[in-house]
Design goal:
72% helix, mainly alpha, single chain, MetI-like fold
Length: 276
């Protein structure tokens, strides 16, 4: 814990800014019911009321408090993206490590399946599946996680193949350790740095992908607050000079920037490159 605190204190300004941005959004997601004046779906005013006065950020296209919707949107979007990324990593890392350690026909079979899935554009594939299966939160999480796990599989297999030929892995094999032991105690600790960095990048991708699907009407469904759907709902305001759609769009941009700033710092720190 002391080393962790020291790393935070010694982090560059860009990384601290990224951590501050992430902390604000996580705080909003966790304490949404406490820091918002209205409920997520409550209509409290006229359509597209101005910023200020009774409503901190005005109201949306049907009169709901935009600030409340943004805060609840943080809770829904971030939580779903995090769970989706965790599931995609569980599937991708398990498959990638298994392919690298076992090799042979297992590696060939898994890799060819992944090649087939990656040959289809992920947005088109997701739209097709969600159009058939529906757009419940559970379906959304499972579909995106399975599609995104192919990218995680590729990276985890590549880094695991560099580790599984090391002497300490061979010693563990000679001791008679099983595949799970090799994956959990030999390969994973020695591939943790690139996988953690990849987790941040994949989270950004999943977060943006869910927002894109919501904007297209196949992501998180109304009346649940979601930044992507909030952009779609308020985009018609541009015709009248009303910029309410920019607020959820800016929230998406800021969170993406914050995560990328932290990931960049982590990659630089684990690579051993020092700042000049």
């Amino acid at each position: 814990m002391r080393d962790f605190a020291k790393n935070i204190v010694n982090a560059p300004a860009a990384a601290k800014l990224g951590m501050a941005i992430i902390a604000v959004f996580v705080f909003a997601a966790v304490f949404a019911p406490v820091i918002t004046p209205y409920s997520e779906t409550e209509v409290v005013g006229d359509v597209w009321e101005e910023v200020g006065g009774q409503f901190f950020l005005g109201t949306d296209h049907i009169g709901r408090d935009l600030y409340t919707r943004l805060v609840y949107g943080a809770r829904n979007t971030i939580a779903i993206a995090f769970v989706t990324t965790m599931l995609s990593f569980a599937v991708g890392i398990s498959g990638g490590f298994l392919a690298a350690i076992v090799g042979g026909w297992v590696d060939q079979a898994l890799s060819r399946v992944v090649d087939i899935l990656m040959a289809i554009p992920i947005l088109i594939f997701a739209l097709m599946i969600l159009s058939v299966l529906g757009t419940s939160v559970t379906t959304l999480i499972v579909v995106i996680a399975l599609l995104d796990s192919t990218r995680v599989y590729r990276l985890s297999r590549a880094v695991a193949m560099n580790v599984e030929v090391m002497d300490y892995v061979e010693v563990a094999r000679l001791r008679g350790e099983g595949i799970w032991y090799l994956m959990r105690y030999e390969v994973l600790p020695n591939t943790l740095a690139p996988m953690v960095a990849e987790f941040g990048l994949r989270f950004c991708f999943v977060f943006l992908f869910i927002s894109s699907l919501s904007f297209l009407g196949l992501g998180i469904q109304p009346p649940t607050a979601d930044w992507g759907s909030m952009v779609r709902e308020n985009v018609s305001g541009f015709d009248f000079g009303i910029m309410k759609a920019l607020m959820p769009a800016l929230a998406i941009a800021f969170l993406t920037i914050g995560v990328n700033l932290v990931v960049d710092w982590f990659l630089q720190k684990t690579s051993g490159i020092k700042d000049e």
